[in-house]
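COMPLEX REQUEST
Ligand: S-adenosylmethionine
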Amino acid sequence: MKTFIDLFAGLGGFHLGLSRAGYQCVFASEIDGDLASLYERNFGLRPVGDIRKVDVNHVPKHDVLCAGFPCQPFSSAGKKQGAKCPKSGRLINEVLRIVEFHHPEYILLENVPQIITIQNGEFWKHVNSSLARLGYHVTYKIYSPKQFGIPQNRERVFVVASKRHAIEFEDRPEIACDVNSILVHGIKHRLVEEAKVEALEHWQKYLDNIEFTYCHTVLAAEFGATYPLTDLGLLPIGELVKYRGAFGMSLCECRSHADVYARLPEYIAKKNGKIPEWITTSIRKSREIYSKNQVFLDEWVKSIPPNTSWQKLEWRAERGNLNIFENIIQFRASGIRVSRPTHAPSLVAMTPTQIPIIGKFKRYLAPKEAAKLQALEGLRHLLSDNTKSFKALGNAVNAKIIYFISKKLAWE
Ligand SMILES: C[S@@+](CC[C@H](N)C(=O)[O-])C[C@H]1O[C@@H](n2cnc3c(N)ncnc32)[C@H](O)[C@@H]1O
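STATUS: Structure written out below.
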């Protein structure tokens, strides 16, 4: 039986994928105590802790080395410090240290696609040339679960380093999916809080009454606003008082720029009057909608939810079905995002507050369901803490993709 080691083991996505393909795990490392205990419960093997402290002589011989090294230093949601990130950016060197000593036949890595491009490709050059120097042929491919019939869009890069010959990856088309296919009924679900349901119902009234013309972010604070789309800090106060701020608030009594900013939408106020380029189209479109629907919207904004991020609607669903509750919803800092039920949004490790909502049931996705999005339904146990569970699931590698890749490893 061929063997593997599971570095940065987490929930064990590599473990599930490879053991299904007939490989045996002989060593694992996971620094988080709760995850290590869970791994032991699920797989009967206790991972050692911090890999930096492990003597290579204590790592058993193995045929395949697997490492889903931490992605926070590279992901677009993080600070993109790459290998300079002091906490975990250099953990790839721990992988190289073990490879140099043990020379496994294959190395499987998984991470966010940004590892290829970050720091002008310097990080990837380091990984690639180090593995080539150790005698490996390195190839990589970006895959998403939706190419494997799983309703999640989550692109990750899969790297295979082989001592024999370069592995060839094929392109895979997207397969039509439906989030309904992974829902688990009859378990205890977390219902969406009442205030959030009210906010959604309020936006539904908007959708029922406004002709939908454009897929963009609707910014309710722009309804009635007239402030010019230029750097407001450069305009004299005497000029600014002629305009209207968020929800048409008059600026005529403002005596300073600070007074003005306090009456502007929060996305302009926090930039001290600078208008971010990316938001100007949404501002213009939202004002256009207001000009065509003023009577309805003046009434509608009176009961808008006070939470400013709930005053923005990011419509990513179809134009043909404007029922929020037939879609997937996320309450994000950037707004309420509504997406098609064909795919769940990418599970993100760093922001467990964005847990997707199943509109038609007005409930959150359950960890058991999120596990299915990662092909981890084979885990008998998950963490009991909901937030930690989603964080780990968002960090995990998709076991079905690993199974698929493991089938490419030749041994003859
Ligand atoms: C991106 S996750 C990998 C998840 C894993 N592939 C899975 O399927 O769940 C990275 C994991 O590395 C762990 N980790 C971070 N630093 C570590 C270290 N120095 N030694 C061992 N594990 C570490 C984290 O706790 C986290 O669980």
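REMARKS: The first helix runs from residue 13 to 20. The radius of gyration is 25 Å.
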